[in-house]
Each structure stands twice: as structure tokens, then as C-alpha cells.
């Protein structure tokens, strides 16, 4: 049994499966499309919200260094993703990569993790988008009833109709085709980047040098204790990261990491890329570089416009302009946030459906979901199913506490991909690699260590929820996935063993 749990699906078989007409996705994306997807999903809640929160509570003006630290962690992982996505251009991202290197059970675990990560991420962003829309409607004098805004009311019923409607609309767009999705994303991302550049350029004229002093505020240790909400590192080692000081920068980095979530989703579109060997590394690394530069610039400008102790937590960029007497920019920024969150939601939903599609094509989930639309060549069945489920979650549920699960899920995927790169280099050195991660195994090891460090800075409560979801996933795998896997159906021999000729058909001397 242990040998079947770690049976691997070789790269050649993975690529061959993508050529079956009923399960083949249309190849229509270029390097520019991939970069736009990456920028579209990365620039969102983080740049519009988290900057003020971490500056005020953890890092002060040094929040820009926290973005750099989080960007470095992502860059280490991005180098590993780039090699895998160009070598194994198959939908599924980290799930597919781990199936080719670590084996079926680890692949299931990471796939199950990604399903949770992208689903919660989509719902959380949709709820945030709804909040911005309601704010703009309120300013215009239009007010939604409480029972349609997801708020508590006398009847006890509340449904966030805007959040649910957004998810359903984006679901329809994704069903109609990747090229349409790419065109809409390109337009929306262009508007969003212009808004960010307006913030940077206009805000630079209102910077006051004294607001940067002290650049790294004096450390204030977090009281030690056994609270479940304490960072896991505190419970394990008896000490807690500091608010402010040098350690405050790393504490902040574990929070602003949420702002970078998304570049890995570019890898889920590898199968729909015309030239993945060339374009996947460009899309992954290019989008990450662009967003890191923009994040650092925004952080420097905002903390220079207003003293970090007075920054707003809810809307730091908009309120910073109000503080310097230019409230008009606040409306522009709110509009940019609405636009930005729209693309984030769509691309998270895209990543979710591609992972689900890849798992169903491998038989770990029902194969019914692996058939593509005869005209649009999109995985319409999982897209519609997941879109409806996520719309219901976004409409009925407040997910503020569950949002941290998105962070831990992504970091866990980073660890798996980095390990997989090292393993596949040793087990399949013959594979053609259009892009090679430099300094293997040093870069993958650094990626693992950096990701684990940020994971340890997350609350223990987040780890507990993550563990519960993983246990549920194991039950699903052993009750269904293990016996319905295509490797089990085809009777593939366990990894590491040579296939044996059928009885009676042995070659004659």
C-alpha cells in the first residue's frame, strides 16, 4: 500500500493526457497575457489595505522593507515555479509538479490545499469588493437593504448579493474562454496600474521627511503567552516576534505576504500557453518584479505623506490624501480598489478551476469534471460548480478569520514546489528544461526555509484550521481518490520499479 501512495505520474504521461481531445484545453495565451494575469491578481487588497495596517502595528516606515522581504521569499519560490511550469506545461501548478516528483499522496495533499486556498481567496476578495461598491453607492445616495448587503438584521437573514453576483459573472466569463478572460483582464489591469501610478506620482509631492523618523521604530516585544492566536513560533519556542524593530519587519512580512499571493496562479495556465517553455518564466518572474517595485514605491510614499502612527487601517491610501487636503484622490483610489479586486477575484477563480480540472483528469476527483466544453475548450463543469459554491460562500459567510488560511496554503505550496525541483533534478536529469532554477539545491533550500519562517509567524489557530482541512482531505483520498486514480486504473507499477511483462508474453531467447 505504501508503494501505491507514492506512485508518480511521469512527465511524458502528464503531457500526453493534455492531448486527448475531450480533455484538451485551448492554447491561446502569450507571455504578455501571463504577465497581465500575474499583475492582475497580485495587485489587490494588499496594496490598498495592508500597507497601513502593518506600518501602524508592526514596522513603521520600514514597511517598505517588509514588502521587500516578502518579495524575496516569493522570488525564491518563483524561480522554482518557473522551472517546473516550463518543464511540465500542464494545468494544476504545484499539484501537477508534486505528482511528477513526490508521488500521488503528496500531490493529493497539495491539490486539496490549493482548492481551499483559491476558494477562500476568491470569496474573501469578493466580499471586500462588495464593501467598496457599497461605499461608492452610499456616497452616491443609493443604499442596499441590510439583508442584501450581508449585514445582520432583525430577520436574522443576510446575503451579500453583490459578492455573489460578482463571482457568478466572472464564472460566466471564464466559461466563455481564456482569450476573452485575458482581454478583459488586460483592460482592467491597465486601469488599475494607472491608479497605482497616480498614487505614487501625486503622493510624492506631499512627502514630509520627518514622517520617516524613526524609520525603524524601537522594538516592543509582544507579551508571551499560550493563546491559540499567538504565532506558532511563540508556542513552540517560548518567545514572540517583536512589534517594530528589526523583528517587526519580519512580522510585517508574514502579513503583507498576502499582498503577493497570486503569481503562482500563473503556473496553473501553463497548459493554455502557446509557448510555455519560453513564456511561463517570463510571465511568473515579470509579474512578480513589477508588483514588488510598485508595492515598495507605494509604501514609501504613503508613510512619507502621513506619520505611521496616524495611518488608517481600513483605507490608508485614500485617507492619506484626505490628510493632506486632497480628498478627490480618495475617490480615485476607491475606484482603483474596485477595479483591482475584480481581476484578483477572477484569476483566483481561474486557478481554482484549473487545479480541480487537473485532479479530476487524473481520477482523484470524478472524471465527469475533466471534460472540456466542445466549443469554448474550457473546463466548464468544474468552473460552474465551483463558481456557484464560492458565490454562496461569499454571500452567506464572513471570512475575515479564515483569510489567513490563504497565506498558509500558499506558503505550503511553495515548500512542496521547491522540494519537488530538487527531487526531479535527481530522478529525471534527462528532461529538457527551457528554464533552470539557478544554484540548485541552494535556492530551493532557501525557499523552503523562508516559507517555513513566515508560516511559523502565522497564528496557531490558523495551523489548527489548516490541519482539520487536511484531515478531511485524507478521508476523501482514501475513500475515493486512491482507488479511482488513473494510475490505479491503468495498473501502473509503483515508482522506482520497472514494469513487468505480462504472463505468457515473455520474450523468447
From TrEMBL:
Pfam families per record: AA_permease_2
Gene Ontology CC, one term: membrane
Organism placement in taxonomy: Bacteria, Bacillati, Actinomycetota, Actinomycetes, Kitasatosporales
Topology in the lipid bilayer: Multi-pass membrane protein
Keyword Transport: yes
Protein name, as recorded: Amino acid permease
Compartment list: Membrane
InterPro entries associated with the record: AA/rel_permease1
Molecular-function GO terms, alphabetical: amino acid transmembrane transporter activity
Keywords on record: Membrane, Transmembrane, Transmembrane helix, Transport
Amino acid at each position: 500500500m505504501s508503494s501505491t501512495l507514492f506512485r508518480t505520474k511521469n512527465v511524458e504521461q502528464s503531457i500526453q493526457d493534455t492531448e486527448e481531445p475531450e480533455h484538451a484545453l485551448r492554447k491561446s495565451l502569450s507571455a504578455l497575457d501571463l504577465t497581465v494575469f500575474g499583475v492582475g491578481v497580485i495587485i489587490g487588497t494588499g496594496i490598498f489595505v495592508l500597507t497601513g495596517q502593518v506600518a501602524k502595528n508592526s514596522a513603521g516606515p520600514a514597511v517598505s522593507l517588509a514588502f521587500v522581504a516578502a518579495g524575496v521569499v516569493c522570488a525564491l519560490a518563483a524561480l522554482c515555479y518557473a522551472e517546473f511550469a516550463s518543464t511540465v506545461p500542464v494545468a494544476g501548478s504545484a499539484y501537477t509538479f508534486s505528482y511528477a516528483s513526490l508521488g500521488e499522496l503528496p500531490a493529493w495533499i497539495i491539490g486539496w490545499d490549493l482548492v481551499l486556498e483559491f476558494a477562500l481567496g476568491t470569496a474573501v476578495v469578493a466580499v471586500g469588493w462588495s464593501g467598496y461598491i457599497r461605499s461608492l453607492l452610499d456616497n452616491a445616495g443609493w443604499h442596499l437593504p441590510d439583508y442584501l448587503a450581508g449585514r445582520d438584521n432583525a430577520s436574522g437573514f443576510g446575503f451579500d448579493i453583490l459578492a455573489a453576483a460578482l463571482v457568478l459573472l466572472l464564472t460566466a466569463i471564464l466559461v466563455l474562454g481564456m482569450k476573452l478572460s485575458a482581454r478583459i483582464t488586460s483592460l482592467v489591469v491597465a486601469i488599475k496600474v494607472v491608479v497605482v501610478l497616480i498614487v505614487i506620482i501625486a503622493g510624492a509631492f506631499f512627502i514630509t521627511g520627518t514622517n520617516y523618523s524613526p524609520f525603524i521604530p524601537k522594538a516592543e516585544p509582544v507579551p508571551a503567552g499560550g493563546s491559540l492566536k499567538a504565532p506558532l513560533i511563540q508556542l513552540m519556542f517560548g518567545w514572540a516576534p517583536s512589534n517594530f524593530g528589526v523583528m517587526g519587519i519580519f512580522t510585517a512580512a508574514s502579513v503583507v505576504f498576502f499582498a503577493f499571493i497570486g503569481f503562482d496562479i500563473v503556473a496553473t495556465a501553463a497548459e493554455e500557453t502557446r509557448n510555455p517553455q519560453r513564456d511561463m518564466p517570463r510571465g511568473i518572474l515579470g509579474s512578480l518584479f513589477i508588483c514588488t517595485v510598485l508595492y515598495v514605491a507605494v509604501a514609501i510614499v504613503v508613510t512619507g505623506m502621513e506619520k505611521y502612527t496616524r495611518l488608517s487601517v481600513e483605507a490608508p491610501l485614500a485617507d492619506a490624501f484626505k490628510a493632506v487636503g486632497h480628498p478627490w484622490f480618495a475617490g480615485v483610489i476607491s475606484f482603483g480598489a474596485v477595479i483591482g479586486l475584480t481581476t484578483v477575484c477572477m484569476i483566483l477563480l481561474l486557478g481554482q478551476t484549473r487545479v480541480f480540472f487537473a485532479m479530476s483528469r487524473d481520477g482523484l476527483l470524478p472524471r465527469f469534471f475533466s471534460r472540456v466544453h466542445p466549443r469554448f475548450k474550457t473546463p466548464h463543469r468544474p468552473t460552474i460548480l465551483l463558481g456557484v459554491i464560492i458565490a454562496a460562500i461569499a454571500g452567506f459567510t464572513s471570512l475575515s478569520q479564515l483569510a489567513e488560511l490563504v497565506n498558509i496554503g500558499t506558503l505550503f505550496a511553495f515548500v512542496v514546489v521547491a522540494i519537488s525541483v530538487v527531487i526531479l533534478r535527481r530522478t529525471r536529469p534527462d528532461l529538457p528544461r527551457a528554464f533552470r532554477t539557478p544554484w540548485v539545491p541552494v535556492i530551493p533550500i532557501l525557499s523552503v526555509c523562508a516559507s517555513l519562517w513566515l508560516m511559523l509567524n502565522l497564528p496557531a489557530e490558523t495551523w489548527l484550521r489548516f490541519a482539520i482541512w487536511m484531515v478531511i482531505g485524507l478521508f476523501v483520498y482514501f475513500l475515493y481518490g486512491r482507488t479511482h486514480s488513473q494510475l490505479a486504473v491503468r495498473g501502473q507499477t509503483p515508482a522506482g520499479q520497472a514494469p513487468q511483462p505480462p504472463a505468457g508474453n515473455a520474450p523468447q531467447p
